Amino acid sequence: MNLSIIIKNEKDELGIYSNPIDINVMVNGISDIYPKISKKYRKTLKFEYEAYDKYNESGMDIFQLYDKVVEMLNQKIKDGNCEISIDSFSSNSFKRINEVFFNGCIIDITKVKDNEINSLLSNNNFNDKIKFKDKYNNYSLLSYNEVLNSYKLIDKMKREIKKYDLTPLEQIIFLYDKVRKKPYKAYDKDQSTSRDINEVLNNDYVVCEGYANVISAVCNALNINCEKILWKPFEGNIGHASNLVYINDDYYNVHQFFEIDAVVATKKNEKDYDYINNYKLFLLPLKYAVGIKEKYNNLTIGYKLGVEQLNDRYNTADRFKAIAAPDILTMNSIQLYLKGMMELANKIGNKELIQKCRKIESEFKNDSIDFEKVQKIHEEYQKLFIKKIKKDVMIEALYKVKRIEYLIDPNEYKLDIDSFKKMIDCNFPKSQEEKLLEVIFDDINGYFDNVKYLKTIDGNNLDEKVEKDIKRIEFLNILKRELKSRKGKVNVKK
After folding, report:
1. Please, what is the angle between helix 208-221 and helix 168-179, to 10°?
2. SS3 for 285?
């Protein structure tokens, strides 16, 4: 049997759980299980299958199993082949791990929150025999220094984006442009080199899953909820990876799930400067992204996303309601759905959805509930996957990001009125209404009508204001280059 140690926050889950294949020891910290497992676990030994309520197939009773766990643990510590899974941590626990498992072990940190990992790694030092399993490095185990370096590079990218005071939508655009600047390049000898974030951030190789890992990591560092989507083909074995991101942007009033697929618009080579203006499939609502992947790429989502599991919970409650099942079944299924919905709403920062769920939950005190209210919440939830970002919103957000990018590197990121208008026309074609207005009123384009920033600039019309704004940025670039060239040659007073 396999033995795994799982450090948990939830006290009600502590104990020893067994099935025919695995034994899982769930503890608060490593001090609970070594050098001797606390006697409290004798009372919390559990089996996952009814057939194993009393005896497993080897004939051990639950107390014999307890002794077996102690024996196995001691042996694994001696051999250095123990795996520890963590969803929370304390400094004391990790110091103890380093002391006890001196012969080596694998620490699985895939379920630890990203912002906690930085603290975990910074405050501890692990010997080289201890390896880490990380959610952004799926194809290799990392040493302490390697996993620490990965998160330092992620943090560096986060700080670079944060310093420009961008909104969540603008941050996503900036990150998207930054990531796809690196050309697609596969490494055939192993999977980790072009996929694991520790490798991708330190070499020239990257494929779809590599882009997806970087985007997920940086987004989560920015407190933008994001996860990797793994797509599988209907036939064959060539899959794909992209991202599911929830943009919670009050400035632009965008609160929505979108797909990000960096591969579709990556830089082809070092001489390719047109890639930066490609946003045709950028931030597609998930429903549309799934349709496009199925129709044109022969792909479907390879596993159930967390957002899809909520649909299953709702369908169960709806089915119980339709067949007039006993109230306890219907009520329990609704409670389970609302619990999942509140967890997700809290995760993505949708306060309005949280409040509505809490209001319905309060009705449970009266042992009654209006299912139509639950139905309305689910309908509202479904809208988070189908609504597109308005064209004028994208124009404003793109323009503000392009200004910053041009200031960073005018050679890589071009900025002029004609090229910006061309970019908008290519990626956001005019609607029938816009075309009709253009015919009636001749020169109605509305490229910069809703860019609030431009209203602060003097000028007779929007194009003139944009020209002035670009001239300012060009002047700043000249000053920046001059200051850089003088650095070390003359003393510049601050």
Report:
1. 150
2. strand
For tokens 């997700």, what's the residue? 344
How many distinct structural domains can be found in the chain?
4
CA distance 285 to 377: 19
Query: Are 340 and 435 part of one and the same domain?
Result: no
Sequence-ordered list of residues with C-beta below 8 angstroms from that of 276, at least 6 positions apart, any chain? 177, 181, 267, 405, 412, 413, 414
pLDDT winner (highest mean) among 6-15, 82-91, 312-321, 444-453:
312-321
Residues 251, 254, 257: CA angle, nearest 5 degrees: 145
Please identify which residue in the block is written with the tokens 């070092």: 270
Indicate if 48 and 167 belong to the same structural domain.
no
What order do you get walking across the sheet with 2-7 strand by strand? 46-47, 15-18, 22-27, 2-7, 82-86, 105-108, 130-134, 137-142
**Coil vs helix vs strand at 317:** helix
What is the reported pLDDT for 53? 46
At residue 52, the pLDDT reads 45
Say if residues 181 and 406 touch (Cβ distance below 8 Å).
Answer: no
Specify if 139 maps to a domain.
no
Instruction: Give the whole-angstrom CA distance, residue 103 versus residue 82.
Output: 10
Amino acid at 228: K
Between residues 14 and 52, the one the model is more confident about: 14
For the chain, how big is the Rg over CA atoms in Å? Answer: 27
Give the domain extent around 188: 152-278
Tell me how crowded residue 115 is: count the other CB atoms within 10 A of its CB.
Answer: 10
Taking Cα atoms as reference points, which of 81, 111, 95, 103 lies closest to residue 7? Answer: 111
Residues 6+ apart with CB under 8 A from 266: 180, 182, 183, 184, 211, 275
Same domain membership, residue 115 and residue 171: no
